[in-house]
Amino acid sequence: MGSAGSTGSTGPSFIELAGAFGGALDDWSAAVRDALAAEGRYQNWLARRLGTPAPKVSLWLRGREQVWLSGAGLPGAATTRAIVRELGLEGPSADRLAALAARIDDLQRELEALHPRDWRKRAVEHLRGTAPAPAPAPVPVPAPAAVAPTAPPPDTPQPTTRRGRRRSLPRLAAAAATGMAAAALVAYLASTRTTPDTVKPATASQPATAPRAAALEQPGLEKNTLGADSRCGEPVPGPESVVWRVCARVDADRVAFAVKITNQADRAATARVRVRLQYVQAKAFHPCPEAPNPQPVDVPPGRTVITDPARCSVPREPVPYAYQGVGWVVPANANAGSYELSPAAHVYPDHTIWKPELL
Hints:
This protein is an alpha+beta fold. The protein has 8 helices and 14 strands. The strands form 2 sheets. Strands 1, 2, 3, 4, 5, 9 and 10 form a 7-stranded antiparallel beta sheet that branches. Strands 6, 7, 8, 11, 12, 13 and 14 form a 7-stranded antiparallel beta sheet that branches. The protein is globular, with a radius of gyration of 21 Å.
């Protein structure tokens, strides 16, 4: 007798195939994210190069979540060949992406053969309840002995190594909408239900609410959201009506990091998400000193919440270093997702070079 979800064949059951399918999508999305980060490229750039709508590219980078977030076609061999070409990938990184794409295509054909009319619906029922277990706190890649700091070349992407030698990075699954609030109108807002240890409540000198978020959202990078000499990465959609991005700020004596989260809905329920923030220094991942664990955050409709940079800041070194913020925003009950990076801050004793940078 076949196992649950099978049709009586001696091959893998539908549930087994669906699990492998979700894992292959997760791995493919993470590999593309790593490749983009290593080349210093962003989703919007890839969308333009491929002639593909940016929301579709964003879905591709959501791993298994794209199966239920949209009914659109999933990435396969043809899409992957185009991505490899545009990013100029070669060697092991290109081969791994091609192998993952072939596996996605093969598994999809097997799923369709078992349930031709509703394979996707059945796969979603299984995948939504079986997200991969969260990885333990990421283990930083050790720097060479005693970390003799050297000036980071301005064209060195962070936090991955050069093409063909990318390090494995932790993943969590991320989310779905697009946009960004204008810097001058951003407030540090306390949620109406929960104030996690990374969220800074609004003070009397700060506006209690951000103006209607949906009207302020803009694509692309953002400058000075956290104050002078700060940058935020491109907006990441999801989950649901939330849009978020990872930010970094360089002060005279410290480097700080934060996640900015906007609920674009006007009248919907408060968005409840789970947020994790880390930072990269000299290509190694590190937990935030005062907020090492994921935190629940509530974002009221039409509001913006920014995690408190003071809870994730480190002393500015007297020698050159490169830094990036690393953030995850996932549904409140999720235990897995994909990370996003802030622009890289190449911090020298007397100046900072941001990559990428606004023109």
